[in-house]
Amino acid sequence: MKLKIFTLMLILALGASPALAQDSTTIAVNDFSFDLDSASAANVNISLYPGDAPDVQQPGGPEVAHADIALYDTFPPESIYDATGNIRIYETADFADYDYAAQQLEQLQTLLDQRPDLAAYTTIDPENTSNNALPYMPSQPGSQLIRAQPRYVETASVKGITYITIFRMDVSPILGNEFVYTFQGISDDGEHYVSATFWLNAALFPAEIPADFDYSAFDAGFIDYLSESVATLTAATPADFTPSLDSLDALVQSFAFE
What we know:
The chain is of the alpha+beta class.
């Protein structure tokens, strides 16, 4: 896969200049903006990805053109996976030739129009754990293992959903640092799709797998384990996560289009 990223604005080091030395800064990319608390990230890297050909074959499938806003505590990072959060802005008109993206857009639009109870999507299907998946962009090599605390969100110019999830391709215990908090939304005019993902650490889950872990017994009770994990996440408070869910909810509430 060719790396096709054109940098629009390299780094905003929050606090590096008097203009940015404050508790929060408004980050603007074209007509999209949000308020970033300096405690959430110290650096912002903004780039433009022109998109892959719709028929390209690669893990996760072809990527739609988008503006990418990566948030980092330290910069430069060792890899793109060191980002604490990532916000992608798509134009929905670009989704037509991309099957996966078009499906996510259609599902999200249906959810926002019909407003079903999102709690139903937290149920684990024993036949296929990826069933009941909620909309998520971009496509991932793995599938949604679980979903928890889903809710509808509406700002002045964006409507969408937030939820906690984890992506997996294998059967193994969940570790505390594997969760993501995501917002998937559509601008009020329907012209933009916003995908925001932030890495979470949940102290309610172990930090590592014990050396004497019994994988055979775990595999036999995997579905029950997933249901119990969802119940644990559902009962968790915002402060049980790092960063706190309250801070991430506040960041999402600042999403705006002009």
